[in-house]
Amino acid sequence: METEASCVFCSHETLPKLATVSSKCTQYLKNIVVMSSQLKNSFDSTQVDPTINVRSYESVSKLGAAQILANNVTINKPQANDCAIIMYTSGSTGKPKGKFLLRVLFVLQDEQDISLHIFLNICSYLRCDAQPL
């Protein structure tokens, strides 16, 4: 509701939670992609607002592959200031808050430093005092 996202990826476990708020998100949310589960072969999307498309990751992947093979795809490369992740706090000290982490924070020349870089940027955005081990 707060992010105005048009597409959300979720798990089988989080789909029911998303379904409970889906009717409040129809202005922006158009697609929900449910990631595969090793425990379940299918998912129940009957509680999701009917104006929102719910698809499995596998079906979206097949659709994308078909479009690529048909040469019907224009690829727009991500820009440095595009949002890479929306991270939410748990709300343990108040209302949960979302932080936008920009793509530029995750782009490194040396891949060995990626986990440390991500950790420090997340701590910075969340104003944590945590330090890496």
Walk me through the structure.
The protein is an alpha/beta fold and 133 residues long. The protein has two domains: 7-69, no CATH class; 83-126, no CATH class. It is 25% helix and 17% strand. It contains three helices and five strands. It has helices spanning 15-21, 57-69, 114-126, and strands at 7-10, 31-34, 53-56, 83-88, 98-102. The strands form two sheets. A three-stranded parallel beta sheet has the order 1-2-3. Strands 4-5 form a two-stranded antiparallel sheet. β1 (7-10), α1 and β2 form a beta-alpha-beta unit. The longest helix has 13 residues, at 57-69. The chain is globular. It starts with 6 loop residues before the first strand and ends in a 7-residue tail after the last helix. 9% of the residues are buried.
Put the structure in a nutshell:
This protein is an alpha/beta fold. It has helices spanning 15-21, 57-69, 114-126; strands spanning 7-10, 31-34, 53-56, 83-88, 98-102.
Distance between the termini: 36 Å
Radius of gyration: 18 Å
Q: DSSP helix count?
A: 3
Overall geometry comes to globular
Question: Which key features would you list for this structure?
Answer:
2 domains; 133 residues; 5 strands; 3 helices; two-stranded antiparallel ribbon; globular; alpha/beta
Write the layout of secondary structure elements.
Blueprint: E1 7-10, H1 15-21, E2 31-34, E3 53-56, H2 57-69, E4 83-88, E5 98-102, H3 114-126
Parallel strand pairs: 1-2, 2-3
Antiparallel strand pairs: 4-5
